[in-house]
Specification:
Layout lengths: L4 H17 L6 E2 H8 L3 H13 L3 E6 L3 E6 L1 H4 L5
Antiparallel strand pairs: 1-3, 2-3
Length: 81
């Protein structure tokens, strides 16, 4: 599956956070992505939406206040194209 450059950047960022946690999980939310990757919120939403549609990213609602993003299991150990 081909990823765009922006998709690759987001996946790499989330992957690094997940490696830091060491448990296959992350608490990356929209603010983390926009702030750390210097991406506008609208761009980040589009990239995330595309990655969710491609089943590379999964989402989790936390207390109906915050959505966090993490890599699907098959994407965690794959080399990006």
């Amino acid at each position: 599956m081909e990823l765009t450059q922006k998709e690759k950047i987001v996946v790499e960022f989330i992957s690094e956070v997940m490696k830091d946690y060491g448990d296959g999980f992350s608490d990356v939310d929209m603010d983390d992505i926009t702030e750390n990757l210097k991406m506008s919120q609208s761009t980040a939403k589009g990239v995330i939406g595309s990655l969710v549609k491609k089943e590379v990213l999964l989402t989790l609602d936390v207390n109906k206040e915050n959505t966090i993003y993490y890599l699907a299991n098959f994407a965690q150990d794959k080399e990006l194209p």
